């Protein structure tokens, strides 16, 4: 049974006026980064809940289409020898087709490394309880008939790639991680002591290409964890942000307001990427001279951004060699700007404290491309509560009442709303708030 469905039957959210977004740029193959693993652990039975991200923002329809229609590989079925399959759902909330890529580092993956996903469609799959892997989005892909290469010899970018961003050696079903820059959802389902914790994050360490959200699907043993503590989003593309607000109900429900990044607007978020890290910066004016500062030039709406590490591959930017410690490797301008627009996302190698989510094992996951609303700011606002959860403690009645209180959440949010937006304030977002690493626990993600 094909579980790929659309969401036309679900009510749409009220749309804001947005600029149109189009996947129109070229991505060449770049360096790859892999992730590590930990020991196995058992989990409890899964109860899959309904997704809580609906609707889409308008995007242009003049995207590159495939020269050949390639059928998606069959859905992975739960292993009959595995009594606890973990749901992994991928949803395309974008206005254009994307080609999700899936990389498996440990455990049993979903049976495919990538597939085509139409606007508004979702795909339900399963992974094993010891799965470690990542999910990313590829754009503007054109494969040959069997999905083993580009539809033409030169590929979509003249270098043999089948996708303009996130390409994995021109394969529909990826065997390698996507080429940079790419936004990542990373999972380690067997983290911590004895593999009894799940670690997950949104990573911009390899750069950024499209917005991404992670939705937790509770298991029987984790239904008590409120959704505003688990459901993260990174929206760093112009045309996707709702109006500035400190809280909202995207990714959650009315009972549990989610804390948001609240300073950026669509004009400001269009310029967060440092000029020299744009994968394809706008062309020079007719006289061949950039005005100063460079940001006076209109940038494209779809503006993939390389990380400092993927751009220079230097030890200082990649936190390797003599810089392989938090004390020696400090945030770059890219990291600070990325943290300003996506407070809950990894911005560089030692950004664990305000980027890693840790919850008990159990439950499934939905990765949503082009989520609605705003980037979340969960780890800074709910750091103490998440540390308690990571330590195996349940939240008290008093705490549960507090995290439903919108006024309290807004008071705890270190970044307050301002009229006008169009600002970046990374200094406010690098404070040591929600430290998520439990003593002696490593997350197993690079």
Classify the oligomer. Answer: single chain
Strand residues, percent: 15-25%
Count of DSSP helices?
A: 8
Percentage of residues in helical conformation: 10-25%
Provide the gyration radius in Å.
Answer: 20 Å
Query: Please, how many domains?
Result: 1
Alpha-beta content class: alpha+beta
Distance between the termini: 36 Å
How is this structure best described in words?
Pfam families: Thaumatin. The chain has 446 residues and is α+β, with helices and mostly antiparallel strands. The chain has a single domain (5-429), classed as Thaumatin. The protein is built from 8 helices and 14 strands. The chain has helices at 266-269, 308-312, 315-318, 333-341, 378-381, 383-390, 397-402, 406-412, and strands spanning 5-6, 86-92, 98-106, 121-127, 132-139, 184-191, 197-203, 212-217, 232-234, 247-253, 256-259, 345-346, 357-360, 364-369. Strand 6 and strand 7 form a beta hairpin. The longest helix is centred in the C-terminal third of the chain and has 9 residues, at 333-341. The radius of gyration is 20 Å and the shape is globular.
């Amino acid at each position: 049974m094909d579980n790929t469905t659309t969401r036309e039957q679900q009510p749409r959210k009220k749309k804001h006026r947005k600029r149109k977004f189009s996947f129109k740029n070229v991505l060449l193959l770049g360096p790859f980064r892999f992730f590590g693993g930990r020991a196995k652990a058992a989990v409890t039975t899964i109860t899959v809940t309904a997704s809580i991200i609906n609707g889409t923002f308008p995007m242009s329809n003049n995207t590159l289409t495939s020269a050949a229609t390639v059928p998606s590989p069959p859905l992975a079925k739960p292993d009959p020898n595995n009594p606890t399959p973990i749901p992994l759902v991928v949803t395309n909330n974008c206005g254009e087709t994307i080609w999700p890529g899936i990389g498996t580092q440990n455990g049993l993956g979903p049976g495919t490394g990538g597939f085509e996903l139409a606007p508004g469609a979702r795909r339900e799959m399963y992974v094993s309880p010891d799965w470690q892997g990542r999910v990313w989005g590829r754009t503007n892909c054109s494969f040959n008939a069997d999905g083993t290469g580009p539809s033409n010899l030169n590929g979509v970018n003249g270098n043999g790639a089948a996708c303009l961003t996130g390409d994995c050696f021109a394969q529909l079903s990826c065997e390698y991680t996507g080429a940079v820059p790419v936004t990542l959802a990373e999972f380690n389902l067997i983290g911590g002591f004895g593999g009894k914790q799940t670690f997950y994050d949104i990573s911009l360490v390899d750069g950024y290409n499209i917005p991404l959200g992670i939705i937790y699907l509770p298991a029987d043993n984790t239904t008590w964890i409120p959704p505003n503590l688990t459901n993260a989003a990174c929206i760093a593309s112009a045309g996707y942000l709702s109006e500035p607000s400190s809280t909202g109900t995207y990714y959650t429900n009315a009972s549990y307001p989610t804390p948001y990044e609240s300073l950026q607007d669509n004009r400001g978020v269009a310029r967060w990427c440092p000029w020299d890290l744009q994968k394809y910066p706008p062309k020079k004016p007719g006289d061949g001279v950039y005005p100063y500062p460079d940001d006076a030039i209109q940038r494209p709406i779809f503006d993939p951004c390389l990380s400092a590490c993927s751009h220079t591959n230097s030890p200082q930017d990649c936190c390797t060699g003599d810089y392989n410690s938090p004390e020696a490797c400090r945030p770059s301008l890219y990291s600070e700007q990325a943290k300003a627009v996506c407070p809950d996302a990894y911005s560089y190698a030692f950004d664990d404290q305000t980027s890693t989510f840790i919850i008990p094992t159990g439950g499934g996951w939905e990765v949503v491309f082009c989520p609605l609303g705003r980037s979340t700011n969960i780890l800074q606002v709910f750091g103490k509560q998440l540390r308690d959860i990571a330590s195996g403690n349940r939240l008290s009645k008093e705490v549960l009442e507090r995290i439903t209180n919108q006024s309290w959440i807004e008071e705890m949010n270190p970044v307050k709303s301002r009229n006008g937006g169009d600002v970046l304030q990374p200094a406010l977002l690098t404070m040591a708030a929600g430290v998520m690493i439990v003593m002696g626990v490593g997350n197993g993600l690079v």
